[in-house]
Amino acid sequence: MDIRPTHTIYANNLNEKIKKEGKSLYAIFSQFGQILDIVALKTLKMRGQAFVIFKEISSATNALRSMQGFPFYDKPMVLNLLAYSKKDSDVISKLKGTYQERTKEKKKKKKEVKKKSVRGGFSQIPKFYGKIQIKFDGVCPLTIEMPTLYNPYQINLGSCFMPNIRLKQMLKFERFSRFSQCGQGRTDDDGSKNPPNHILFLNNLPPETQEEMLNMLFNRFSGFKEVRLVPGRHDIAFVEFDSDQQASDAKGALQGFKISPTHAMKVTFAKK
């Protein structure tokens, strides 16, 4: 059976009150690589859910590992490695030139499939038990051992973190220190000669920048206090932390972060 990872992350437990969640999802996930599409429907069944499709598989894997449980508008996101399938999504197929339009007959047969839901997926999908190991490619490869897995097509990383408390704590640490440890992140050299400061200065922000968006990016770092926008200026802002070191950690991690496809954020220490 040809089962392979694909490019899509499935996110749920999203705050249903957010109107433009697509832009906010782009803001927090684009740091991991090029995003081809974000599907966030507002239908009754799809509220609080979204699909984020990356151009590269490694980008999806890294984003999944780093953003699991991220407080998206005060609700922790639940991310699934749902993207295990024999076929690419339409947008990826079009990119590869392998897209084939589905005929009405195929669509009709698909609807006729009996969908008996069981834990982990449809009853037609084979299940296996025991312990497995998942090795992440890309940033800081890590092997996680899980007990029972019910469905090889769907791996909920939220459940992976729970059996081992020590592992969970280690992941929390690596989630934001990976940039310096693995050499895969953005450079901390911003060309500024300002001495370390507990207040960061942000510039090159896009016109649509909002305080909530910046809060989501920075409040995951220890010591975060507040974001301050400058009245009449959309392109700059200040972020305050408890200490110089905490500000430095956030600065190193988010230096060059793309708030939008055309705006890479510049982060420096504010002048004292």
From TrEMBL:
- Whether Ribonucleoprotein counts among this entry's keywords is yes
Which domain of life does the protein's organism represent? Answer: Eukaryota
Q: Sorted alphabetically, which keywords does the UniProt record give? A: mRNA processing, mRNA splicing, Nucleus, Repeat, Ribonucleoprotein, RNA-binding, Spliceosome
Query: What region holds the RRM domain?
Result: 7-84, 198-272
An example GO BP is:
RNA splicing
Where does the signal peptide begin and end? none
Q: Which protein is depicted?
A: RRM domain-containing protein
Q: Which organism is this protein's natural source?
A: Ciona savignyi (Pacific transparent sea squirt)
Give the classification, highest ranks: Eukaryota, Metazoa, Chordata, Tunicata, Ascidiacea
